[in-house]
Amino acid sequence: MRKLPNLNATRAFEAAARHGSFAAAADELGVSHAAVSRHVRNLEMELGVELFERHARHVVLTGEGSLFARTVARSFADLALGVGRLKRGTAKGTVVLDVETDLAVVWLMPRLTAQALDALRLNVDLRCRPDPPRSLPGDVDLVLTWGPAALIGFRSEPFLDLNAFPVASPALIAKGPDPVSPGFYAAHRLIHERGLYWWRRYCEAAGVMLDDVDNHLFFNRTHLCIDAALRGLGIAIGDHLSCGQHLRSGRLVQLPGPVLPGREQYHLLTPDTAHLSRPARQMRDWLRKAAKN
């Protein structure tokens, strides 16, 4: 029989390694600081190596500690994934899809039609999050996220690229001046996502002075920026993912000027296992096909 290190001690070590603090690990585990310290010390004695460098207010992994922390983190992730899928019961045809919120609103939901669901014949558990995940519950099958989001237990593949460009409603454009005139952007409100990044990049590429624009509207989500543009509140930086259906219907117009490459891609994450469940394979294949259309 394989000899494993004490599991309570290993759990305490994993939490301390993740937080870089015995006190934070103790808070997470609901035990005392002294208990975490004792567990880690006993584990070091059992393994015969120092796992941490102790400092007054924090701890730092040694080289051996970093190696062991990666091993433990992967093992715990595999255990969590296995337990989650057993509890849910993959044989019942359920797939859990974790999706970045903006992508769910502007790209996934328009494609997840009744016809598509009937063809998939799956129970879809869709969970949305505003930012790339740092960790996942054990029952998640697939992830769509902005950037590769390296997560233990998952492999990442590029999924969707995007290019950015300014968009506006036809009604706003009709108010003038002409979109190719120097004063067009100064005459309207600029809609920003989170900050000035995209408009600063666009203005530099187009030779427009951002300082000439007095009116600005800020949101922290892409789909809110696009909704504001649809309602004629100003000009937004869009892309073919978030604006495709609105451009095709004529509710938005792509303005003349440079097209900017995106900072990052969307990625599809799948469990790093030899065999995916049937529902996960079906959903993965459907997502890949949808990304090509």
Notable characteristics:
293 residues; alpha/beta; Arc Repressor Mutant, subunit A; D-Maltodextrin-Binding Protein, domain 2; 6-stranded mixed sheet; 5-stranded mixed sheet; 11 helices; 21% strand; globular
Concise account of the structure shown:
The chain contains eleven helices and 13 strands. By secondary structure, the protein is an alpha/beta fold. Pfam families: HTH_1, LysR_substrate.
And the CATH topology of the largest domain?
A: D-Maltodextrin-Binding Protein, domain 2
**Number of structurally distinct domains:** 3
- In the CATH hierarchy, the architecture of the largest domain is 3-Layer(aba) Sandwich
Pattern of helices and strands: HHHEEHEHHEEEEHEHEHEHEEEH
The helix count comes to 11
Q: Note poorly predicted spans.
A: none
Strand content range: 15-25%
CA-to-CA gap between the ends?
52 Å
CATH level-four homologous superfamily name of the largest domain:
Periplasmic binding protein-like II
CATH class of the largest domain: Alpha Beta
Q: Which structural class do the helices and strands define?
A: alpha/beta
What integer is the average pLDDT?
Answer: 88
What is the number of strand segments?
Answer: 13
